[in-house]
User: Fold these one by one.
Assistant:
Number 1:
Amino acid sequence: MQTGVAVPDPGERRSAAASSRPLRVLVVEDERKVAEALRQGLAGEGYDVVVETSGEAAFFRLTTDRFDLILLDLRLPGRDGIEILSAVRRRGLQTPVVVLTARDTLEDRVVGLDAGADDYVVKPFAFAELLARIRAVARRGRPAEAERLTVDTLVIDCTTRRVTRAGGAVDLTAKEFELLLHLTRHARQVVSRDTLAREVWRETARSTTLDNVIDVHVSRLRRKIDAAHPVRLIHTVRGVGFVLREAGSS
């Protein structure tokens, strides 16, 4: 199987260690040649790399060890990658996850992202692109980004990913949380579908199918956030996009 993983020349390598401790990465990949190429390439970039080649071993490792980032293949012996991802997210694991897979349909991407993936890279891929995705996801996951966001009676704890409205807990999927977080960080600003496609769904081009997926997620989010409250926070700006704002603001 073509992987697109090419280990860079030593002269082209850049250190991933922005601090005294390198980022610790778990690579979960059952194709040993691909796993070894990733291990060598990432180690050459300064990452501390651990490799697991089965779903069961990966799940055990994730429940007993700590990592800064996870590269997760979906088709694994013993336990499917989506099953692993869903299980560790239910247990409260917030470690950033980049899915690596040959499944390249939009529906597959939506399933992966909804299960809790932070990004989705389709095989074959360029190693340089994977590094860029890793750096972007790692930046988003830094402790410095931990914060508490409030709009009206809506409160988001970014550290625990806990959402409340008027003191009551709001249960969200991983993708719903990411969507709400983006809208809240841009509160009182109209956010277009183009922006949501790029920043939340990690898609560079919109499509009718993706627009429908975005609309469905916004509709579900609106029900969970607004349905039980007299003041609506999530509004549709017809023909443009969406805005999250409190009553009386414009």
Number 2:
Amino acid sequence: MAKQPAIARTVPALRRAIAAWRQAGETIALVPTMGALHVGHLALVREAHKRAQRVVVSIFVNPTQFAPHEDFGSYPRTFEADRSALAAAKADLIWAPTAAVMYPQGFATRIAPEGAALAGLEDKFRPHFFGGVCTVVAKLFLQVAPDVALFGQKDYQQLCVVTQMAKDLDLPLKVVGIPTVREKDGLALSSRNAYLSAEERAVAPTLYRALKTSAARIKKGEPIGRVLDDGRAEIAMAGFALDYLEARYALTLAPLASSQDGPIRLLVAAKIGKTRLIDNLGV
């Protein structure tokens, strides 16, 4: 039976564990999650083991990144299953604070990111989101004080925003993006995939197919506007309500002046039924 990772639920308990590792001269990696762990999360844990001697996985469903109409209440919470998965993945510690620990009475500070956080992608549809993400991630970075933190590239705009935040605030760690883990049919792994009905699940890989086709056509030199229009039509025809399909400069998510403004990243978000899916692909 795999050794169970330690669990810290208060900042003092977390810092005692961190201090013991630091005293022993050990390096620390952090994998921030909201739980409901899947193979993609565990790939981050495996990569974390390659980059540090100790691995901390945070599990916290962050209320400040959900709007009132979103799925905070129904977001999957599977702590015991997550704990077993992290034991098998040899995580050293689970940082599992409550909302009262992260946002105690009187909490009054928020981070208001700009740059990639105002790119007109996720922020256009979830204007509250990146402020909540940056505030909680900054707290996690300060609480755990890792040498490296690992994030999945599926949430590409988030990765750009968090990377810039760490740089701007002179936080002494490296933020690393890990390639998206996919199902065999291309669907990006996500905790929200559990919301999909069987029929919706069959249609969901359309997003990745549209990204692949669009990327291939742009590489061949076809006009980006026409390629994106065709991709949007394909996604809508499959039954999605499309929020966006865009081509952006990969390093800043700024709009492209021309197809020569590489590297290019394609980003998509669309809703099928009650489930909103996002994905992205480099060109």
Number 3:
Amino acid sequence: MKKALILCLSVFTFSLSAQEVIQWRGTDRTGIYNETGLMKSWPADGPKMLWHFDQLGEGYSSVAIANGKIYVAGSVDGQGTLFVFDANGKLLNKKIYGPEWTTNYVGARCTPTISEGKIYLYSGEGDLVCLNESTLATLWKKSIIHDFQGENLRFGINESPLVVDDKVFITPGKKNNVVALNKNTGEVIWTCAGEGDLAAYCSPLYLGDQPVPQVVTIMGKHVLGIDARTGEKLWSFPYNNQRDIHPNTPIYSDNMLLCIYGYGKGSIMLRLTDGGRKVEQVWENKELDSKFGGAVKIGDYAYASGDNNRYWFCVDWKTGVNQYKEKGLAMGNVIYADGMLYCYSDKGEMALVRPTPEKFDIVSQFPITLGTGEHWAHTVIHNGVLYVRHGDTLMAYQIKQ
């Protein structure tokens, strides 16, 4: 009986582990990874590299992880290719999913989203593709241009699909601002006209704790809140910079949404009111202007880098007041795990930083010397391993003690 109970608990634990999905910026798009036992400092030459793979092609896709497999997209000879690895870096499979962006900053943009045996990829050409997770067979495909009268962008579509329950959400823009599709068939469930803006490179966010569960995203000139069930526009807030480019997914906590303009425009904090049917501006910070590095909220503070303002910032979540703005590292993206910030700069510096409102406290750092092109892909942490993608190379570092 005791052995049977142990076996049952073991199977149950494995089942929970297997169901965990790491998508764009973690399990919930916050940039926070629920890891423990990670190193609090690194050797001078960095943590041990477990493996690397050097034939991903061009791109900026982060890794997604599900059911013990690692997924990442790249562009090889102009063709978008999904690569599948095991935890030891062995290439298990790859699949061409269609043409990728070749006009400027060439390569795959989308981080794959995995849900209940299906993989969702969004190409820079605006094609949403659904693959079978086991076989990589194409199950269905939609084009934002041909199916939804959308329009591609100056730097190509750059968005990771959002999957919630039976829906997958994308933002074609224009008259079909945001669209909900049946995740199994690709059939349209609803479309929302929003404010008629173009898309703006933003991966949408789901707020499930509001009286009206909603999808929040940033379009070219507005932040939108949309009823996830019906597609009704709940609210919109004017929001634009000089280029209508807004790649940062908003950061949400306690009815508050941190929206970072980038391109020298700063940030605003919105508060949801009236059961999530309205918003009001709480504060504006004209200096925190991360271009596409994201932010994380730790306690009462938000941490992020600037863009035109080339500092790293700690901002009071409630007031927007800068606790510090300091240099010491080039601008970049940031995630968080086990009490530490992981900052990856666009100069190829990987830094371990203690989150404190007193100063930008770099504990350790090392250079990323492999790979090609820009250091723009967001890093990922899973099972004590730090995954860094730099162009055609994916690297895995052991960061657990």
Number 4:
Amino acid sequence: MNPGTAPRVRARDVVWFALGVLLPVPWMVANAFEGLGLPYEGIAILSGLAILGAAFMLSWSCEVAERDIPQSLALLVLALVGVLPEYAIDLHFAWVAGKDPSYAGYAVANMTGANRLLIGFGWAAVVLMACFKSGSPKLEVHPRQRLELRFLVWATLYSFVIPLTGSIDLFDAVVLLALFFAYVRAAMKGDQEEVELVGPALLIDAEFQDLGRRIWALGLFLFAAAAIFFSAEPFAESLVHLGKNYDIDEFLLVQWVAPLASESPEFVVALLFAWKLRGSVGIGALVSSKVNQWTLLVGAIPIAYALSLGAPRGLPLDARQTEELLLTSAQSLLAAIMLSDLSFSRREALLLAALFTGQLFFPSTEARLWFTGLYLLMGIGILVFGPATQRRNFLHLVVPRFRAAES
């Protein structure tokens, strides 16, 4: 903000800010009194509104934080807070699996469902929203997002190795956590840039100086994190119980309904960025979330399982979970290849959304294998028959020195 320039704060910004902060309050109060005996319908509504309010607060605090820290690090922190409920739910399943083996499948089901939902719905929705708002047939992604994309490619390629041992073991945890901490280190070295704040983020920036602004950003982060943490699991559980009343398959509920609670903050935040014509930041936030899930979350699962079991063993994968993991890896690879040229078209977004939707209607073993093969064939087709620049860009992500060596 330039000295002497008065920022324009509108009354509706104050209303939005108050709404975002107040939405989690009813559930936080009810939760403090053990739900107040609410039926599952009431729990679903109040905890869902709490998550929605937290998502708004996350988007504002992330925008404010970009004033003071590198954007890559701001997106990383946003992604970490946004996936807290996913960690809570998935690690709960992994921990219980150490005592009750029947829960082992739920941990992988929830993780793979969340990952595929993130790309198949989240990425596609952000690109389509950005294209709609800008009137462009594609979303141009800033080169700084190449950092998140590179670590996504590395984590995705390694994920194809995991099913070979029949489990997600402690060696996988070491590799994936090493990737995560390398990502954190790289994100901390990113460049800062002057950002133009709008809405409630502008309200915070206009009313407070540097220290006050940072305190508000941190406070919103912490309040949003608490709201998400205390709301996501009750929201997911209430949906599961409601679904059972309609005789819906419990496995599918764990895989698809529970992630809707844990992933909704990330989707709302990213869509808000796209709505504000900052689609590159929105897709960057979701790519960062994907990196976090592929590295920190998947790496933490076998650790939680081994600690609960009291033995250094990996979380076992049955045939279905192996298929689910391979399908998730194949989807991630195709999406990374599409984004490797730092451009995502409306047509590519619709393709990802269509393939993801197809999986919901055809959950059989044959369909999972068919979709896995289709993702891989499309990815290979883009690399072999697509533009040479895209092929070079992808290879540059895999081997950073490739482009320099080639030239």
